[in-house]
Amino acid sequence: MQRSFCPCDCQWEGPDIDSHDLAELLLRAAIDKKALAPVMLDVEDLVSYADCFVICSGNSSRQVQAIADAVESTAKKAGIRPLSVDGRTLGTWVLMDYGTVIMHIFHEPVREFYNLEGLWADAKRLAIPGGSARATRADLGAKPAGAAT
Fold it and tell me: What's the pLDDT tens digit per position in 57-110?
């Protein structure tokens, strides 16, 4: 969907960029920092506040912080600033709000605990451009979304 404003009607200032293109830009920056198990979810038909969720993991809080820094830096170079960033200091779950795209960067054990992919199982998974050679959650020993505990 082509939107360059925040759905909450705040004064979003940024380039006119498609939500999926923005999600890909953010995800590429994360993958460049060796983010694990990247996922893009199309939530446009499920929620009113975003079009896409981007989810990925790091092996440590330091890697999570480095991924968040790279994502923010890449977006800034494209003229895009987040509306808010939460959790960077702790580095277990960084949430970056880019208006139509919400980026979740987890330390892997925290990602497994909250299981956003399971929570948003009805969301359409978007193809990751160029694929990803990074580990999948199954490679990391995580249970698939919806698996019994």
Answer: 999 999 999 999 999 999 999 999 999 999 999 999 999 999 999 999 999 999
What CA–CA distance (Å, rounded) separates 144 from 128?
A: 19
Query: Considering only the top CATH level, what class is 19-126?
Result: alpha beta
pTM exceeds 0.85, yes or no: no
120 close to 21: Cβ distance less than 8 angstroms: no
Map out the domains of the chain as residue ranges.
19-126
Q: How far is the C-alpha of 115 from the C-alpha of 26, rounded, in Å? A: 21
- DSSP per position, 81-94: --SEEESTTT-SEE
Residue with tokens 């969720």: 53
Tokens 């983010």: give the residue.
35
What angle do the packed helices 61-77 and 19-32 form, to 10 degrees? 130
